[in-house]
Design goal:
The protein is α+β, with helices and mostly antiparallel strands and 282 residues long. The protein folds into two domains: 188 residues, Beta Polymerase, domain 2 (2-Layer Sandwich), CATH 3.30.460; 71 residues, no CATH class. The protein is 60% helix and 16% strand. The chain contains nine helices and five strands. It has a five-stranded mixed β-sheet with strand order 1-2-5-4-3. Helix 7 runs antiparallel to helix 8 and helix 7 packs parallel to helix 9. The longest helix is centred in the first third of the chain and has 31 residues. The N and C termini lie far apart (76 Å). The site of ligand 0O2 has 13 residues, from helix 2 and helix 5.
Length: 282
Amino acid sequence: MEIQLWRELLDPYRQAVDELVIKFMHIKQEFQDSRMYSPIESVCGRVKRISSILDKAQRKGVDIEHLEEKMEDIAGVRIICQFVEDINTVVDIIRKRSDFEIKQEKDYITKSKPSGYRSYHIIVYYTVQTIKGPKRLQAEIQVRTLAMNFWSTIEHSLQYKYKEHMPDELRGRLLRAADAVDALDDEMASVRDEIMDAQNSNRQRANLIADILNNIENLYHIANEREVTKIQNEFFDIYKLNDISLLKRFNKQLDVLAETYRAQSLQPFTGSLTIKSTRYYN
Ligand code: 0O2
C-alpha cells in the first residue's frame, strides 16, 4: 500500500485514539472534581505502527484488504488502575456508555495468558466524524493495574527482541515475575482501604490549601495589603501545624472575612478586619 493510502487509512484511527483518551481522562477528572476516588490512574493511547500492523497481519494471515475488519487493535487505548478491583469499576463504566458499542470482552485477568500476561481487553466499535462523513471503526481498550502494566511493558520489549525465540530460561523468569506481580496486586488489594484513606486525605488537604490560597488571593482585591500579608503569615503558621481541622476552620474564617469585606465595600469602611490566629491553637 502506498504511504499516502496508509495515512488515509490510519487518520481516523488517530482521531479515535485522541477522542477516547480525552473521554477517559474526563472520567478521571469527573471523579476528582466530585472529590471521589478515581478508579482510573492514567490513560494513554496509540495507533499501531505500520510495521506492527504488517507483522501482525503476516502472523495472523490477514489480507491487507481485510485489515480494518480483522485487526481489532489498530487503535489502542490503555487505562491504568491502581488496584485490581478498580478494573471492574472501569469495565462497568465502559459497558454503560452509549458512545461506543462493545464487540467483545477478553478477560485475561481471571485467566492469564500462557505467557503470564494479565489485562482486561474490550473491543469496541467507535464512530468518528471525518470530513468524508462518519466512520465506524474498531478500537481495543486495555484495562490493567500499574503492576500488570509494568510486567507487560518489560515482557513486550523482550518479545520484540526475541520474537518467537525467547530462551526458556528467560520465559521461566518472566512467568515467575508474573506470579510476583499477582502477589503484589493481592497484597495491595489487602491494604486498599488504608491506601485510599491516605490518598483521600492527601487530596482533601491539597484541595483545602488550594482553596485557602485562592481565598487569600481574592482578599488582595478587597482588603488592604497589610491585612492580607498578616493573614498570609497566619496561614503559614497554621500550615506548619499540619492539622487539617485547623486548616478547615481557618478557611471558614476566610470565607466569613471575605463576606464581611464584600458587605463593607457596599458602604464606606475605614477600619480593618483580621483573623484571630490564637483561636486556632486551642
Ligand atoms: P502491540 O505491539 O502491543 O500492538 P487473538 O484474540 O488472540 O486472536 P490478538 O489480536 O493478538 O488476537 O488479541 P490479544 O491476544 O488480545 O492481544 C492484543 C494485544 O494485547 C497485543 O497486541 C498486546 O498489546 C497485548 N498482549 C497480548 N498478549 C500479550 C502478551 O503475552 N504479552 C504482552 N506484553 N502483551 C500482550 P499485539 O499486536 O500483539 O502487540
